[in-house]
Amino acid sequence: MLLITAASLIGIGLYGSNDLKKMNENTRTLYADRVLCMQQLANMRFEYTSDILPAALNVKNHILSFSEAEKRIKKARMIIDTNWHNYKHTFLTPGEDSLVRQTDVVKNQADKVYANLGSILSKEDTLALNRFIQKELSTGPVPIVTMVTRLMELQARIAKEISNSNKEIYQDTSRKFILLILCSLIIAVSLSLYIIKNIKDLFKERLASNNIIKHSEEKYRSLLEHASDAIYLVDHKGNFTEVNDSMCKMTGYSRKELLQLNVEEVIDPEQLKTDPVIHGYNQPGQPVIRERRLIRKDGKVFDVEINVKMAAENKVLVIARDITDRKRTEELILKEKQLSDAIINSLPGIFYLRNENGKLLRWNRSLEIVTGYSAQEIEGLVVRDMLAREDFKILDSAAEKVDKGGYAMAEARIKTKGGAKIPFLLTGSPIIYENQHCLIGTGIDILSRIKAEEELRLSEQKYKLLFESNPSPLWMIAKDNLSVIAVNNAAANLYGYTKDELLNLSVTAFRPDEDLGKQMEGYNVELDGSIDYPIVRHLKKDGTIIFVQTIAQDIVFEGRPVRLSLTNNVTERLIAEESLKKSEANLQTILKTTDTAYALFDLELKAQAFNQKAMEFVKHEYYHLPKKGDSLADFFPVDRFPQFVSFTRNVLKGNTINYEIDYPQADGSVIWYYVSLFPITNDSKQILGMMMALYDITERKNAEHDLKSAYDRIQSHINSIKDMAWKQSHLIRSPLANLKGLAEMLKEDPSDAEVLNFIQNELDRMDSIIIEMGDVSDYDVSN
């Protein structure tokens, strides 16, 4: 019957498993290829609609800065590319694959568009950003978002188809399961009658074997009760089913109380947290021996060693032995060793214990650290192996002293594994250890002491050199009598004394009489650290008053309380500061009264300072009242701003720009300004900002225009005079030519009256021409 039932169940299971496998595969596909894909596409659409598309508008509306928007777009594009790459590697249906290829084309176009947007943001180009918004964000739905939405809708349709397929498989499997179960019941009932008959025979055999078991159980119980160790049985849940008297004495519970408990109730709860009981011991024939901490009825915790073995009827037999005394002894031994090791390892320097042959028996951790040898390497060494060869005689001499006097101390060099030699102060004393004569020794590293002594010597030399050669005046004043006990050359030179004159001189000689009270108050105060005193007056040897600032600190020098002071002559600085204050006042007066407008801008073209003239200019030309922190881009004319930005970029590279600019007025007139832009730098030539200087040149421009008009009129008159001169010269040339010819004729016959008459006529004609020329000139001049 069991075989048939099992076969039926296996058949049903195999059939059901096959259909469940199909449903599971559909479910896995639904999750892996549809739900995850839906999430990836949703992530893409979210990044496009939440981070990329609004970025340009947020920058324009000053919600985001250019750099923040650029970072958001880079991050969003990285998330989009990752999700798109993962989505394309999932299972794609033919229709889905076609739509993905179309989306890829649209995505590549979108990538180019948003890469261009990233470039605009990195350049912080406001005009290009406005053009981008007009072109890309005002043309309706975004193609890439539309394509991603179509893919998400396709995922939903495919997921619905998979869900319907699972429903059909479930209904078909349910019908077939019912038929298989009915067939199995018919076969099971037929065999039940046959099995009942066989059970009666088994009862008879069972009664015969009970007598044998009863006799065996009596022997088992006798052994259980007389055992000196605690013995108990637990079932697969850990409940006590049998305990002996030794178990009751060990725990303090009665048999009845224990049989009502679980084994975990007599185990230390703290141990159960880290080492819980595993019920259902399943290793028959393989006993387990281990330690446990049990808790008595009175709450006292004790240690036991248990032997666990599988018993009949799926029970576990446990033999427990109290090992409290043994554990206490082990702990004492361990604590003694730990204490010994702690003491040895806490010793300053190195510790070692060697026998008569020089072999090391015990040492502390410091010896391993100093020498670089491991514990295993030291075990095979003797003391000489770790000592510099040239110091062997020192070791032998120290050993002789130990033999004679029982104690020795010597300085020798320990040789490390790497060959370095470190000076140590070694001590040794005899001792009996493990029934043999040994020597116990310690060593203290004195390398630092040697270095400290050398550094102290060098420090004293450096201090003396620093004190004597310091360019600033240094003093040491004894606080008990205010006398100078040390001074450098700089102090002597400043005050006009020699060093010998200053030594033992009272510091009251350096202050005016009216300042002595404050001086005494200062020396009565104990200084815990370095203090900067305010500026005070000091007297030089010749009576000249100088102003100094003092830095002082109280120290102990050669066992004597001393005040170490540095005096800094600030007389010239005070004079310079006073002069600077006057210069600044003059500058402010000039800036307030000048007819030139001045304005200072930082690297972002934000106003930092400006004079009254600059305020009047901005208010008159831009209808804006300027204040500190204003950005030029907020009120500067849009048509002129790009050219001005080009100028400022050139200035912020270190160049100076000068130009003239006109501003048409409402009444038709024009005001002209001369503009000068130049960089502002610090002492390191680092450009900090830009200065703008602007002044009105309208009168000069009008004068230049009037001068040009006058020049044009004069040039016109000169041309008219040239024409007139040419015409008159032509009229004079005709009678003059005739006179020349008549003169030649007269040479042949000087008495020729006719020739003379002709000469007279030509002279009269020339005279009338010259008179006419004079009249014309007078007319032109008057005109």
Features:
783 residues; alpha+beta; five-stranded antiparallel beta sheet; 21 helices; 21 strands; 56% helix; flat
Number of strands: 21
Share of residues in helices: 55-70%
Structural class: alpha+beta
Tally of helical runs: 21
* Shape call: flat
Overall radius of gyration:
58 Å
Major beta sheet summary: 6 strands, antiparallel
Strand share of the residues? 15-25%
Whole-number average pLDDT? 79
Intertermini distance: 149 Å
Unreliable residue stretches: none
Describe the structure in your own words.
It is a single chain. The chain is built from 21 helices and 21 strands. The strands form four sheets. Strands 11, 12, 13, 14, 15 and 16 form a six-stranded antiparallel β-sheet that branches. A five-stranded antiparallel β-sheet has the order 2-1-5-4-3. The model has no long low-confidence stretch (mean pLDDT 79). The N and C termini lie far apart (149 Å). With 783 residues, it is an alpha+beta fold.
